Amino acid sequence: MQINQIAIYPSVIACLLGAGLPIATLHAEEPEGILDEVVVTAPSEQTQAGPVQPVKVLSDEELRMKTGHSIGETLKDELGISSQSFGPGVGTPVIRGQAGPRVRVLSNGIGSNDASAFSPDHAVSVEPLLAESIEVLRGPATLMYGSGVIGGVVNVIDNRIPGRMPDKPIGGALEQRFDSTSDETSTAMKIDGGRDHVAYHLDGFYRHRDDLSIGGSAIDTAKASITDPSLAIVDNPDGHLNNTGAEAISGSAGLSWIGEPGFAGASINHLENNYGIAPDGTGEENVRIALRQDKYDFKGELRDPFRFAKSLRARLGYTDYQHTEIANGEPGAFFTNQSYESRLEMDHQDLGPLRGTVGFQAQASDFNAIEKLTGAPIVPHSLINSYSVFAVEAFDVGPVTYRFGTRIDQTGIRPDAMQGFDYTPVSASASADWKIDGKNSLNLALTRSSRAPQVQELLVDGFHDATRSFERGNLNLQEETSYNLDLGYRFKSDWLRAELDLFHNWAGDYIYQQRSGEFVDEDGNPCVTDCVPVLVSSQQDAIFKGYEAKLIFPVMENRHGLLDLTLFSDYTRGEFANGSDVPRMPPLRYGLQLDYMQDKLSSYLRFTRADDQPHAGDFETSTAGYFLLNVGVNYQLKAYKDAKLMLFAKGNNLLDQNIRNSTSYLRNFAPEAGRGAEIGFRVNY
Questions:
Q1: What is the pLDDT of residues 438-462, one digit of tens each?
Q2: In angstroms, rounded to a whole number, what is the distance separating the alpha carbons of residues 119 and 70?
Q3: How far is CA 148 from CA 76, 145, 194, 463, 554, in A?
């Protein structure tokens, strides 16, 4: 498919203008460190990690031990976060019960711009194996990256475009993993180096796995018959999940010029991912998804570019994404998304006590979803443009730090042969962080977030192979607006560290996709046999409330090592104004973790109890509770000269539970992985 160049041209110009400014004033100087910290999504002092704007950063050893097959799986043990799986090939993050467009996944501070926000069977194109760190932002800080992201923002950082000179001409890392649950082997490597003013980066990974091992039967036949009474299940394997093998490969290259006033660089990435969807047991259809993506990115930064600015940062990215859903070897649904995105941010000089960041963001997307063989539209070909301005400011009054921010978006959707849609979401936030004393702190945040409906929520009308459903949009959808109240408390002493976060979200005109109870054939007509369920986009007011809590007790600290005991729990409840349940909410979780460290050895034992989830939503099924026992250990040693070697091993789901994920559309057909072991090593040099 070719981009409609005339229609998208103004948006591309806006993207280029927004991203091109730093180049003009770069000139050769002696190189020096550009970035003082790895945290790059928080572009100014006031948005750094703190209790008023919860930020979780995974990096180094912790990231290596938590890295999973997807971003969702990597983050699923963090408080308030779970994974919306669709079999082992897909795992998108769910934050406080929110997923899809309400959780934005970034790659080095700019959107992944794949199709993962459009449907739960679409994998995120960002790869955790290559990450150097992963950040999770919730609350007011999310206004800098999107409107209506009431769940949060996940930013994966891989240093694809170097922002500072490396400390040696050549260095890198090699990582190898093996997972017994699917006989998966994965290899990742990167090379970084530079000389004079030029720095470079190369990376790549390869992954191959077979069908997934599970605890018990693949299909919960009793629950499956509730959602689809006509389903005739003839194949229900025990101990493994058919058609869940996968193969993925990716490669990237980046180059930067770095000098005293700043840096400018570019990168290119290619990704191919072919993964299977667990079948429905009828023996009639097996679906695989063949995904391909090419990304081209530019990034630049200037320090002290002019009188009123401390720094100026720019990003421009172009993404060419497509995937084909292949049913029994025949191509079916075909999704394409060709998009530009740019950001321009300025940290202004302090205005008295006021410090902050202002910025501009532009996005232009050419989106299409069709039946590949017939050309019939699933979602009409659409041009989507969005322009945004935002500002985040902060000031201190005694022991209290106040922050406030705002974001205004102008979004237009122009489908072929139809009237267009225009929206102007307005979002704002205010927060206060009170450091009561050296041990106690309290924070309060209020955020108003508004988002426009997505194109598929409005216009989808067709059979979707991977979800095995006929999906219908809703042309009458309005902007969704939520008011989010967060209250947090932190305590730190020699004998205890405590964290407690409470939240209550009032979502007006909340957009959701749910089974309607209707069944049709693949052409959308009433039927008696060979029927599929209808999924509809709907809208009504909803309330979300919950908490995250953690207590850390130092049990031992002596010559024998350090032992910590962590007690944790999180909970989210979603309910519509009419008293019905918001579908696909995570269950109540609680448990404990023991962490032991001595010299170069680290280990953990984590036990989690997830309760039943009876609040499944209309035409959905409940899920049973489960116990999850995981262990892990790693040991670090010096390999050769300045090379470091880390050996690690993990045992997952040691009780071999048959786990049905309440946030998954495929909960009755694709349980989570059974008992398994994972081993690997990583060499840094």
A1: 999 999 999 999 999 999 999 999 9
A2: 16
A3: 22, 10, 40, 28, 39
Q: Residue 54's pLDDT band (boundaries 50, 70, 90)? A: very low
What pLDDT, on a 0 to 100 scale, did the predictor assign at position 37?
Answer: 32
Contact present, 535 and 516 (Cβ < 8 Å): yes
226: three-class secondary structure by DSSP: helix
**Strand 103-107, strand 152-157: pairing:** parallel
Whether 628 and 657 have beta carbons less than 8 Å apart is answered as yes
Q: Which ranges of 556-671 does DSSP label H, i.e. alpha helix? A: none
Question: Max Cα separation, the chain?
Answer: 75
Question: Hey, what are 333's tokens?
Answer: 């649904």
Q: Work out the average pLDDT over 581-591.
A: 97
3-class DSSP state for residue 375? coil
3-state secondary structure string across 102-134: HEEEEECCEECCCCCCCCCCCCCCCCHHHCCEE
- Outline where DSSP puts E strands in 120-183: 133-137, 152-157, 170-179
Q: Model confidence over 279-298: pLDDT tens digits? A: 999 988 899 999 999 999 99
One-letter amino acid of 645: L
Does 95 score more than 80 pLDDT? yes
Per the DSSP assignment, residues forming a β-bridge with 645 are: 637, 683
Q: To 10 degrees, the CA torsion angle through 80, 582, 93, 460?
A: -160
CA-CA distance, 525 to 500, in Å (whole number)?
Answer: 51
Query: Two tokens at 78?
Result: 């963090």
Of 447, 394, 614, 471, the closest CA to residue 102 belongs to 447
Looking only at the bridges linking them, the beta strands covering 469-472 and 532-558 are: parallel
The residue with tokens 């990096």 is 59
Statement: residue 41 has pLDDT above 80? no
Residue 328: CA atoms inside 13 Å, Cβ hemisphere, count? 3
Lowest mean pLDDT among 112-121, 409-418, 436-445: 112-121
pLDDT on residue 24: 39
Report how far residue 195's alpha carbon sits from residue 10's, in angstroms, rounded to the nearest whole number.
39
Please report the pLDDT score of residue 138 as a whole number: 77
Nearest to 363 by CA among 452, 250, 267: 452
Structure tokens at 331: 């191509």
pLDDT for the residue numbered 298: 97
Residue among 625, 287, 337 nearest 464 (CA): 287
First to last CA, the chain: 43
DSSP reduced 3-state for 627: strand
